[in-house]
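Can anyone check this?
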Amino acid sequence: MRDRFLTTVAVAAIVAFAALGSTPVSGQTRKASGARRPAPRAADGHPDLQGIWTTHTFTPLVRPERYAGQEFLTDKEAAELSTLLTDGDVDPLVAGIFGASNEERRKRVAQNDPTHYDNALWLATPGVKPLSSNRTSLIYDPPDGKIPPTTPEARQRAASRRAAAGFDSYENRPLQERCIMWTHEGPPMMPPPYNDVLQIIQTPGYVLILRELAGAPRLIPTDGRPHLSQNIRQWAGDSSGRWEGDTLVVDTTNFTDKTAFQGSSSALHVVERFTRVSAEKILYRFTVDDPNTWTRSWSAELPMISTKGPLYEYACHEGNYGLMNILRGARVRDKQVAPGGSPDSGR
């Protein structure tokens, strides 16, 4: 494991050095005419995935009931929604696809507990996030746009996880609060609520993905190598990439049972597909399978659109005052509910 870790660090350094000395990929913004240019290719002939990208979108993962049986918005519906999002206005049409208006979201996260903050202040609101496609959900399989039913084992596991969560110590707080693993990092990768920028660096044999809002770089070998032993488990699993025509296919296994993507177990298996369809766009698709969690596999897609940099460091672990203050707030609450307790006694 130590040798593998050192090798990974060394390769990451080589990839980063190569990126610094390389010529930037041309054509990462759209021409004034609006025409899309062909996808560029790397020196080895494979599509060049390099650039700075965003998966920024307001399209929900799961299809809202309003659009049951409708995989795509009509051009008219998409135009109306895009206008409303740009103007920052929310009417029943927008609330229908996104689940709730800003005011409804704020009511749900009203600050009535010293251990919580107002999440609505952090989540992107209409006027910020666009629609990146006409899809009514990121999920395209099953055709109903829903996550398949969970197994009895998964429901029992979810109940156990909820029972273990609490404010006793940092050990039972979520991975994100502990700056270990963000739920959007992947695989599979999902749009985060903010700071949705990532950079892809590519050399023959490797692809490196850097997310602005993330814990660690993701280094993917592209030589189709076999996976690690099943006895070795990692937060982000073990990824092995290969080229199938113009698509980079990344197969990932060896997850821990603590990563829990959408409630998954350590049996999670993820297959991602990166296809650069133009100079301005990568089509990103993924399929997840876990017989311990869902009754069938399911798939989703979202475009990666070229955007401007740079990426900024997300120094989550420098003090991690959020986690410290959450636990401090919990101790204040404990004092308040104890006989004779007062807010000041918890400081």
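Reply from J.R.: I decoded it. Strands lie at 51-54, 139-141, 198-203, 206-211, 218-221, 238-244, 247-253, 269-278, 281-289, 298-306.
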